[in-house]
Amino acid sequence: MPWNDNANPGPWGSPPSGDGDRREPPPKRPRSGGPGRPDGPDFNASFDRLNRRFRDMFGGPGGVRPGAIAAIVGAAFGLWALSGIYVVQPNEEAVVTTFGAYSRNEGPGLRYHLPAPIERVTKVPVTSLQRLDVGGATQGALPEESLMLTGDENIVDLSFSVTWRVSDADRFVFTVRDPEGSVKAVAESAMREVVGRTPLLDILTTGRGQVQTQAAELMQRTLDSWGAGVRVDEVQIRSANPPQQALAAFRDVVSAQQDQESAVNEANAYRNRVVNEAKGDAARITQSAEAYREQAVREAIGDTSRFNAILAEYRRAPGATRDRIYIETMQRVLQRSNKVIIDGKGASAPIILPPDVFRPRTQAAAPEVQASAPPEPQPQTRAAQ
Fold first, then answer.
1. Average of pLDDT values for 243-253?
2. Is 197 exposed, middle or buried (0-12, 13-18, 19+ CB in 10 A)?
3. Which of 19, 108, 194, 335 is the most buried (most CB within 10 A)?
C-alpha cells in the first residue's frame, strides 16, 4: 500500500472528507479524584503557588522588595562567616596566614579564622613520622640512586630509608616548596658524601652504624641551614652489597674476615685464661712467701725473747738454770728415742736384750725393759722419768 493512498482508511479511520467535516474532540480524561482513580498531589498547583510567592517578593508593581535583598545578603554573609570554622586533628598544627603573610599557629581542636580571602589555613602533621626510601623500595631497585662510589674507589649498591618529622610548622610551610623531594635530595647527597669517605669493607661489615649516624647528622645540619623545619629521626641502611659481578668474591672476603675474627677471639680467650692462671699462681706463691717470712720473723722474735728471759734467770741462779736447761734438753731428746734402762749392780753375766727393743717406734710404743736399779743422781733420775 503506497504511503499516499487515502482510499484505504487504515486502522485509524478515514480522514475528513470536506471542509464541513470536523474532527471530533478526543474524550476528556477524568480529573484526579474522579471515579476509578485515586487522589494524588497536584505538582502543577504547587509550582504555581511558589512562583506567585517569588513574584510577590522580587517583582510586582513596586519592583524588588528591600526585605528580600537584606535576607539574601544576610544569608550569604552568614554562610561566608561560617566557612571560617575548621578542625585541627591531634597530630596536626595549623598555620594561619593573613593575605598570604604568616599570622599565627593553632593547636588541635575546633578553631576559627577569618574567611577567605582574608585568612587561610594550612594544616601540617607535626607528630606523624614520615618515611621515604632512597635507592629503590619493594617495587624494585633504582640504580641511579643506589650505586655509590666508596672511599677506596669501589662501587657499592646501597639502599636506605629516612624517617623524619616536622619540627617547625611555619618554617615547613614557608621555606620548603616540595618537602618530600627536598628531604630525599638532601638524604641522597649526604649518604653519597659519607660513603665517599668510607671503605667498602667497612660498609659491608662493621661500619654500617657509623655511616648511618654520620649521614643523619649531615642531613640535619643541611636542613637546619635551610630553615626547613624538619627533624631527621633515623637513617637506616636496608641493604649494602657489592656490584653483582663481584658479589661472590666479596662474600669470600667477608667469610675470611669472619674466620679471622673468630681465630683472634679464640686466641684472646686462651691468652686471658693462661695469664689469669699465671697471675693466680704468682699471687699464691707471693702470699706463701710472705706468710713464711712473717712466721720466721715471729719465731725469731719469740726465740730472742725466750733467750733473753733465760739469760735473766741464769744471771740470778746459774746452777739451777743449767740443771733446768739440761733436764729440758734431755727430755726433748729422750722422748723421741727408744730407751733401755739397766741396773748394773749385782750383774755377773752379760745382759742380752731382745732385738725388738731397738726397732723404731710405731704408734704402739715399744716396751721398755727396766730392771730394778739403785737410785741415781737427780739429773739422771729426771732424764729417766
1. 78
2. exposed
3. 194
